[in-house]
Each structure stands twice: as C-alpha cells, then as structure tokens.
C-alpha cells in the first residue's frame, strides 16, 4: 500500500511572518490523529528555516521549490542542496512547469538536479505535465515519456524509493480547470506503466504519483480516490490553512 503524500507549493507567496502565520494556522487547526498521509509544506527560500522550526514537533515536513545542481561557487541567485538541508528541508520540488516555462529549465538540467538532490539526501518531487496544445494535438504521452525518461536518466531502482512524481497538466495549474478524475487516472496509470518498463513492477508499485492542478477541497476526494493517484501537489488552495487541511482530510475518505 502506498502512503499518500499531500504537499503545498506556496510559490512566490508569503514573507517570513506570513509563512509563520500560515504554518501556525495549519498546526493549530489540524487533527493529526485523522491524518495517515505524509504532509509537506514548500514555502519560499526565505521562510524555510522558520517553517522547519515551527513544524519540528509535528509530522509535517518541509520542502523547497527549487535548487541548483552545483555545490557552491559563482552561481548568483542560486541555492544548493546543502543549503536546503541546513534550512531543515527533506524535500525539493524539481521541474515545476513554471520553472520549465518561465526559467527555461530543460529535462537535462532537471535530471542533474534530481541526481544532486538524491546524492545529498533530499527527496525530489519531480514534476511533469503537458500543455493544452500538446494534449489537443495528441502528443501528450510522447511529451510525458520524454520528460520522465530524460528526467530520470541514470536514477537507479534504489534511488527511485526516494522519488515522488507529480503529474501536473500545465493547463490545470492555477487556472481553476482540473483534470477530471478519469483524465488524471489515465495519465497516472500511463506513468506507472512507463516506470514498470523503465525499472520493474516493484519500483512502479511503490512510486508515489501526485496529481497537481487546481486541486481544491471540493474536488480533492474524488481525485485522491483514484487507484493510481497517491497524493496532491497543491498551489492556490495550500495558501489557506483551512482549505489545505480540508484537502489533507480528503485523502482519508
Ligand atoms: C502548483 O503550483 O503546483 C499547482 C498545482 O498550483 P494550483 O493548485 O494553484 O493549480
């Protein structure tokens, strides 16, 4: 049985005090006895240390939203894996569609980042997803296959135990348009079958595949009840403690 993983991607929202307020709102209102999933919050870099301090005595873990693959040096504006570890992170989101589209991140770069995260002891949340144009022109599966095979090049079966894949159709991110549970399930099944071919059934069966794209309290339960949907990566609805908690509870239904 795979454990569900619910993660909040705060994107470029919340300064340090706003982050502390949101985390306190989650911690003070959630009933952990109702929660069997792993819960992760991914605030901006500047709030990571504060977030880690605040969640210290709770089951909540902290993730970053990006990192660079070099260890140190003349990479102005970048953050290393060691820096994220020293700020208390256990996870890092890599290959988010906003990084791919706005900051031109290639599959090759994402692959290097995944390797650096894994060799450093950070668990990557590896995002993949097609645009609307790619879906409508019939190349969705080719695009996903390329993202996944190139993103995971050289990653071993053992290392795959630490990897989470997040399927996030670009057309559903921040748009209010969610993939239907059937659409999402079809792609999650496709990804799991692809992982079986790339590795083996064991690796595929153990892989957590999150869905992301306008997950809200009113659609989470149906999405999360699909056999191949093992959690959610949540943007907008993770910015309010009550909606984030509602989604966490939806995973238990
Ligand atoms: C995301 O940023 O990963 C995301 C899924 O955003 P939203 O939930 O707002 O669509």
CATH hierarchy, class: Alpha Beta
Number of domains: 1
* CATH topology-level fold name: TIM Barrel
Bound chemical compounds: phosphoenolpyruvate
User: Which CATH architecture would you pick?
Assistant: Alpha-Beta Barrel
Number of contiguous helices: 12
Question: What percent of residues are in strands?
Answer: 5-15%
Fourth CATH level, the homologous superfamily = Aldolase class I
Number of strands: 8
Q: What value does the Rg take, in angstroms?
A: 17 Å
What order do the helices and strands follow? EHEHEHEHHEHHHEHHEHEH
On the 0 to 100 scale, the average pLDDT is: 97
Which sequence of strands runs across the widest sheet?
A: 1-2-3-4-5-6-7-8
Annotation keywords:
253 residues; TIM Barrel; globular; eight-stranded parallel barrel; alpha/beta; binds phosphoenolpyruvate
What does this structure look like?
The protein has 253 residues and is an alpha/beta fold. It has a single domain (5-250), classed as Aldolase class I (TIM Barrel). The protein is 43% helix and 15% strand. It is built from 12 helices and 8 strands. The protein has an 8-stranded parallel barrel with strand order 1-2-3-4-5-6-7-8, surrounded by 5 helices. α1 packs across α12 (241-250). The longest helix is centred in the last third of the chain and has 18 residues, at 181-198. The two termini are 15 Å apart. Bound molecules: phosphoenolpyruvate. Phosphoenolpyruvate is lined by residues 9, 11, 168, 173-174, 212-215, 233-237.
